[in-house]
Specification:
Elements lengths: L2 E5 L2 E3 L5 E8 L7 E7 L6 E6 L6 E3 L7 E6 L4 E6 L8 E8 L4 H4 L11 E2 L3 E5 L2
Parallel strand pairs: 2-11
Antiparallel strand pairs: 1-3, 3-8, 4-5, 4-9, 5-6, 7-8, 9-10, 9-11
């Protein structure tokens, strides 16, 4: 059974940067599409970014586009989310999740929904405040 553990969260100032990591164990990471999601207090969980099995395809929510970069290193079973230009509205608990893709849009990360992901980490808090 795939296990995911997020790390790298913390408190940063507006405009700052942070890199989150998602470490996988129990199964080969290269079998999975990986997504990053976040949930702010009182808000619904929202998709942030997605990366295909090989890393050749990525996708971002409009709120993340141009500021966040998702990447993966299958050799060390880790996916990253590099975040720059952070804003107070980015404050949330961030989760990584894994999906065995079954459709073309899943395979290429053209579209991704939290409901489709089967394995989840426990999350890491990111707080942006001055």
């Amino acid at each position: 059974q795939l296990q995911l553990v997020e790390s790298g969260g913390g408190l940063v100032q507006p405009g700052g940067s942070l890199r989150l990591s998602c470490a996988a164990s129990g199964s080969s990471l290269n079998d999975y599409v990986i997504g990053w999601f976040r949930q702010a207090p009182g808000k619904e969980r929202e998709a942030v970014s997605c990366i295909s099995k090989s890393g050749n395809n990525t996708n971002y929510a409009d709120s993340a586009k141009g500021r966040f970069t998702i990447s993966r290193d299958n050799a060390v079973d880790t996916v990253y989310l590099q975040m720059s230009g952070l804003r107070p509205e980015d404050t949330a608990i961030y989760y990584c999740a894994a999906l065995r893709p079954r459709t073309l849009v899943q395979i290429i990360c053209r579209s991704f929904s939290a409901a489709d992901f089967e394995s989840w980490g426990q999350g890491t808090w990111v707080t942006i405040s001055s």
